[in-house]
């Protein structure tokens, strides 16, 4: 259950080898269109986010119901409080990453997560910050066009994102709506600590505080459905107490 907890982190929020990139100006122009379409063109990057979602996760040959409450303190801290229903029992699981260390609390039993998972959470933090779209207009990120692909049957353009502190990943922008439609990356499965090809697909969007935010998110691992969740609540927070990410004293 402790390792399962880690895989539930950041259901919201990908890396294939990039093709020969087009000039960065073309990629940045596409990011600019996405920022406008998603309602973040002239908005500051949020300092913090709070989200609630419900859905299912595939684990051990079972489909488990989950309710997830996520707090993100950008750029790289998060707290995931998830209720997992197993055999009619609801088990609370809390996973925290403070930017340097990660641990999980299952029914009051706290366990540190290893270096591989900490590194994975650092990669996720970089992906989450970049997926706010407007940060990608900063030249600290290197962008390149990786070509077109179909996402849920609709044409999209892929952009390779490179930056300091995280592995490269690809994001796909829908050609018709200019909305972010998929992120794909090489992830680490916390249950096996093996690398897997991960795809995060955003099937639909909703309006929240003048922004377009995902309504339904599907996560695939090596082509198989892993998580499907519906975002129930989403709010931008100006300040989040760093104490929320403090490690419990032993």
Q: What does this entry look like structurally?
A:
The chain is mainly beta and 250 residues long. It contains three helices and 13 strands; from the N terminus they run ααββββββαβββββββ. The protein has one domain (2-231): Clam (outer membrane lipoprotein receptor (LolB), chain A), CATH 2.50.20. The longest helix is centred in the middle third of the chain and has 16 residues, at 115-130.
Distance between the termini: 21 Å
Secondary structure: number of strands: 13
Low-confidence stretches: 10-22
Round the mean pLDDT to the nearest integer and report it: 87
* CATH architectural designation: Clam
What is the quaternary state of this protein? single chain
Number of helices: 3
Provide the gyration radius in Å: 17 Å
Name of the level-1 CATH class = Mainly Beta
Report the portion of residues in β strands. Answer: over 45%
Proportion in helices:
10-25%
The number of distinct structural domains comes to: 1
Which class of secondary structure composition applies to the elements?
A: mainly beta
CATH topology: outer membrane lipoprotein receptor (LolB), chain A
CATH homologous superfamily name? Lipoprotein localisation LolA/LolB/LppX
What can be said about the biggest beta sheet? 13 strands, antiparallel
Shape field:
globular
For the largest beta sheet, what order do the strands appear in spatially?
6-5-4-3-2-1-13-12-11-10-9-8-7
Along the chain, the helix and strand elements come as HHEEEEEEHEEEEEEE
């Amino acid at each position: 259950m402790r390792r399962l907890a880690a895989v539930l982190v950041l259901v919201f929020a990908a890396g294939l080898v990039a093709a020969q990139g087009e000039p960065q100006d073309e990629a940045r122009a596409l990011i600019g269109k996405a920022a406008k379409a998603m309602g973040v063109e002239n908005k500051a990057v949020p300092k913090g986010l709070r989200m609630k979602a419900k859905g299912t996760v595939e684990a051990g040959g079972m489909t488990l119901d989950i309710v997830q409450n996520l707090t993100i303190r950008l750029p790289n801290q998060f707290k995931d409080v998830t209720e997992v229903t197993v055999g009619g029992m609801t088990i609370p699981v809390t996973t925290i990453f403070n930017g340097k260390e990660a641990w999980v609390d299952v029914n009051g039993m706290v366990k540190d997560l290893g270096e591989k998972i900490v590194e994975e959470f650092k990669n996720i933090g970089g992906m989450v910050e970049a997926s706010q779209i407007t940060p990608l207009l900063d030249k600290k990120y290197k962008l390149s066009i990786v070509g077109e692909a179909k996402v849920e049957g609709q044409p999209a353009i892929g952009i390779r994102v490179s930056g300091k502190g995280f592995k490269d990943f690809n994001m796909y922008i829908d050609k018709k709506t200019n909305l972010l439609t998929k992120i794909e990356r090489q992830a680490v499965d916390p249950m096996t600590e093996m690398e897997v090809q991960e795809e995060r697909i955003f099937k639909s969007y909703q309006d929240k505080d003048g922004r377009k935010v995902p309504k339904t998110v599907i996560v695939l691992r090596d082509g198989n459905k892993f998580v499907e969740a519906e975002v129930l609540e989403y709010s931008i927070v100006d300040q989040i107490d760093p104490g929320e990410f403090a490690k419990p004293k032993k």
